[in-house]
């Protein structure tokens, strides 16, 4: 079972990933693909349990922007750590569309990328197998400062500095 | 190879001394300046790299974002902040871009590497038109500062002159606009084929018009957001640059005119390697790393230390690296020029060839680089040896000759007045020659003159190109590139291939 970091802690994953062809289990939180959600939207909305959606790296935030209230979890899959599109999806979901729920990175999720993933708005991380968990938890403290605007710190360093010296 | 970042090519003397020490202790006692204004060390042992990085950190240097599919070192004019044609001090804007791009959380895994150049002057000395993004500073009629934004230029296997996607971007919006461009590129740039992954391919596939519209749509969400720049930050960075306290000097130093009239060698150096300065009585000096017999851009640790001494003594302890792979002392008093020249000559750094044929830009080539098809340094050496006569070189005048060992074009052959490209044919090294490329405000890409040549034919080919130029020029002021533009490549082609050695006209 892959390790889940949520809110900087190790947690057990409560969500059940349901394949597109599989039957929906009752009363447990389920994670379905975007295609499944688009196909079974009414059926899924009628369930009495939390719903999560799984995006692939070629999707965009706009694909679910109007329905974010339906989801308790958005998971974005990294096919490989060098595919940087997911960072833009995450940031746009948070900054432009105001998504406040759990935003999870899954797939090729490695220790070295956690710091930046957290900055663009991911707050949960399903580590790839074989990652050192203690090292992963320490990754969020890799750097104390950052120059840019980010989801974590919406005000860039230069404005914070100017505010202090004003 | 360890590539060390030199942000916008600006170095303090103490940093240069540290680089000298690192090259001596961990490498073979020399380094190579690249066309990205960075320093490359070719032979470090992997296990020494942590110690090398620690040594770099002791002088606030690093090797971060010098490789990988991220925003690379931002480059600029090596005469920034001293050039008489300056519009803005581009160092200030480069530093803003450097901060924005350093560990950018969203854009650390782009489809491909990403190169930005900032030009703050009327003349472009940054090759802005052949960068992923080129920014040309503009001062509007009302005094407002902004940037012309050029996207999608580049060299490599698909050379392209960039497209202007915005004529005037007010400075406050610089970073949000960059965010918008990078976001569109990050989303849509090709990731299935690394040879089609640069932004120039995306701009071409979408068309510049559609691409521009998408940038503007993305920017509408980011514009006026918290990343919008503020005056206080610009002033803070300007103050941090700590410009020299210049003395009040006469425009012309009297003794200098006399020295120039009496010392011909000094005068030849002055003519090519001394550049105008915006402050009266000062000049910028190029130390040529293009001495005949030395690979272009190479400098030894001993030279580095001596250059650092020169910088401390004559130029406020600062140095710049030019993208033409030379070093610049930017703030030298005219009265010190003769002393600087004498010392530079002792160090082998006073070859008076800036802007001339032998000021060759070349990548490390097949001797050092695993990607190269062919060697580039022996070609550079053969050309420098053939055309070693200073009077001849000065008569030929301004001529950029650039050599790349493979299609990745690290030697910028596409924008050389004469460009030479190493190609592999049946495991043999051949060289393709193009003419008519140029950098600057009117940047253009060279055209291939015909079938490629064997290594030993290249000096002759260059000689024939020069013969044609000399025969066809209408005045001494008409440069090689001007003649190519006026008469086209055909006459050059005829001269080069007329009665040539068999190998040049066979199927190669």
Word description of this protein:
The complex is a heterodimer of chains A (166) and B (508). Chain A has six helices and eight strands. With 166 residues, chain A is of the alpha/beta class. Chain A has a single domain (4-165), classed as Aldolase class I (TIM Barrel). Chain A is globular. By secondary structure, chain B is α+β, with helices and mostly antiparallel strands. Chain B folds into four domains: 2-69, Sulfite Reductase Hemoprotein,Domain 2 (Sulfite Reductase Hemoprotein, domain 2, Alpha-Beta Complex), CATH 3.90.480.10; 75-239, Sulfite Reductase Hemoprotein, domain 1; 254-346, Sulfite Reductase Hemoprotein, domain 2 (Alpha-Beta Complex); 361-505, Sulfite Reductase Hemoprotein, domain 1 (2-Layer Sandwich), CATH 3.30.413.10. In chain B, helix 4 crosses helix 6. Residues 502-508 of chain B have low confidence and may be disordered. Chain A binds chain B through residues 60, 81-85, 87-88, 91, 96, 115-116, 119-120, 143, 146-150, 154-159, 161-162, 165-166, and chain B through 69, 99-100, 102-111, 183, 186-187, 191, 221, 225-227, 229-230, 232-233, 236.
* Helix vs. strand class of chain B: alpha+beta
Sheet with the most strands: spatial strand order of chain A: 2-1-8-7-6-5-4-3
Q: Which class of chain A in CATH terms? A: Alpha Beta
Taken from the alpha-carbon principal axes, the silhouette of chain A is: globular
Largest Cβ-defined interface: A-B, 30 and 26 residues
H-E order of chain A:
EEEEHHEEHEHEHH
Rounded mean pLDDT of chain A is 95
As a percent range, the share of helical residues of chain A equals 25-40%
The third-level CATH topology of the largest domain in chain B is Sulfite Reductase Hemoprotein, domain 1
The assembly state of the depicted protein chains is heterodimer
What is the CA-atom radius of gyration of chain A, in angstroms? 17 Å
- Please tell me the CATH architecture of chain A by its name: Alpha-Beta Barrel
What fold name goes in the CATH topology slot of chain A? TIM Barrel
In CATH, the homologous superfamily of chain A goes by the name Aldolase class I
Query: What structural category characterises the helix and strand content of chain A?
Result: alpha/beta
Total domains of chain B, how many? 4
H/I helix tally of chain A:
6
Q: How would you sum up the global shape of chain B?
A: globular
